[in-house]
Design a protein that fits this description.
Layout lengths: L1 H5 L13 H7 L5 H10 L1 E4 L13 H8 L4 E7 L11 E7 L9 E6 L2 E8 L5 H17 L4 E6 L7 H15 L5 E6 H10 L6 E4 L1 H14 L7 E5 L4 E5 L16 H13 L3 H16 L14 H12 L1
Parallel strand pairs: 1-10, 3-8, 6-7, 6-8
Antiparallel strand pairs: 2-3, 2-9, 4-5, 9-10
Helix pairs in contact: 5-6, 7-8, 9-10, 10-11
Length: 317
């Protein structure tokens, strides 16, 4: 927020709670006031929210995406730290955000008196959901002068759900022939290709869970989740966030890397047609991240969150 103020963003913030903090304060992990605020503003900059593992309430991130139909999750991975394992990585993962296994249709199957003898989850893929996310990926490629869209799938095994996604992808790709190249990769082969040579990937489009996994992988190619932003986009609302989770083990210690959330804020500025302000922040972030003296611990440095922020604010003046 200090950085946004420094570049002249005259925003009025409506602070709302979510996740465990909201549950403790209001009795609900996703209060009506939070939903009402986002409904009114149409834009949200969201901090990481903790989701209990294996029990408790479902992911608030997923609930918000489904509630506002934020169907397109855009997660760019761009090299910022020189001298890493890979150079010049520039990949965008476009993830379908509302369907697949994350739709949350699951139940227990009782057997021989054991009420939890087995569990079943349904992967739901629709033609409508597949069409709009693949078309989004191609339109993104056109708008950002990208060369190729790769559809990632597991249609060799999941012939109905993933097969539908692949079939729709090929249909949409035909409409962009001559403008944007297209290919498809099985998800395990796609993961190997990313690790062997990231330069073989440009825009990747996939269903929900594969997108969640491979976007973390692409973040690893550029130095980690501390550098990975995300946008969740629908037809009327947009939410911006860091790809990383809440990292409860370091919360309150003042050592977290703020870069991912800063870059997410830049994506928000682009969405709000404030690209000059976004450009200023990105340029300074790139310079600072390359400077070993002000790197945070996740990048091998010793700077605190505040020290990094102070350096960034000083460079913006």
């Amino acid at each position: 927020m200090k950085v946004l103020d420094e570049v002249g963003c005259d925003f009025e913030y409506d602070m709302q709670l979510g996740g465990i903090a909201a549950l403790e304060a209001t009795g609900s992990p996703l209060p009506d006031a939070t939903l009402a605020s986002f409904q009114r503003t149409g834009v949200a900059l969201k901090g990481p929210l903790t989701t209990p593992v294996g029990e408790g309430f479902r992911s608030i991130n997923v609930q918000i995406r489904k509630h506002f139909d934020l169907y397109a999750n855009v997660r760019p991975a761009l090299t910022l730290v020189p001298g890493g394992r890979y150079e010049d990585v520039d990949i965008v993962v476009v993830r379908e955000n509302t369907e697949g296994l994350y739709i949350g249709v699951e139940h227990w199957i009782p057997v021989a008196g054991d009420p939890k003898a087995a569990a079943e989850s349904l992967m739901i893929i629709t033609r409508h959901g597949s069409e709009r996310i693949v078309r989004f990926a191609f339109e993104y490629a056109v708008a950002h002068n990208r060369q190729r869209v790769t559809l990632v799938h597991k249609a060799n095994i999941l012939k109905y759900t993933q097969g539908l996604f692949l079939d729709v992808g090929r249909e949409i790709a035909a409409e962009y022939e001559g403008r944007v190249a297209f290919d498809d990769r099985i998800v395990d082969a796609a993961a190997m290709s990313l690790v062997l040579d990231p330069s073989n990937s440009d825009v990747l489009v996939m269903e929900n869970m594969f997108g969640d996994i491979l976007s973390d992988l692409t973040a690893g190619l550029i130095g980690g989740l501390g550098l990975a932003p995300a946008a969740n986009l629908g037809t009327t609302h947009a939410m911006f966030e860091a790809v990383h989770g809440s990292a409860a083990d370091i919360a309150g210690k003042g050592i977290a890397n703020p870069t991912a959330l800063l870059l997410a804020a830049c994506m928000m500025l682009d969405h709000l047609e404030m690209s000059e302000e976004a450009r200023r922040i990105r340029n300074v972030v790139q310079v600072l991240v390359a400077d070993k003296s002000v790197r945070t611990r996740d990048l091998g440095g010793s700077a605190t969150t505040q020290e990094f922020t102070d350096a960034l604010l000083g460079a913006l003046v």
